[in-house]
Design a protein that fits this description.
The protein is an all-alpha fold. It has one domain. Helices cover 72% and strands 0% of the residues. The protein has three helices and no strands. The N and C termini lie far apart (57 Å).
Length: 57
C-alpha cells in the first residue's frame, strides 16, 4: 500500500515535505514549508529565552 507523496504533492498544490503534508491532511494544520516550520521554532525559542530572562529580574 503506502502513500505516493509526489502525486499527493501535486494534488494538494503545495511544495511540502512529507511531515508537513501529513500534518496538513490529517490534522488540518496550515500548509507550511520546512523553512517556515524552522522559523517558527526559532521564534518560539527566542520568546522562551526572553521569558526566562524576565523571571530573573
Amino acid at each position: 500500500m503506502g502513500i505516493l507523496f509526489d502525486e499527493l504533492k501535486e494534488e494538494i498544490g503545495y511544495d511540502m515535505d512529507p511531515f508537513d503534508m501529513i500534518c496538513h491532511i490529517a490534522f488540518d494544520k496550515p500548509p507550511l514549508t520546512r523553512k517556515e516550520r524552522a522559523n517558527n521554532v526559532k521564534r518560539k525559542t527566542i520568546l522562551l529565552s526572553m521569558r526566562e530572562q524576565q523571571g530573573k529580574y
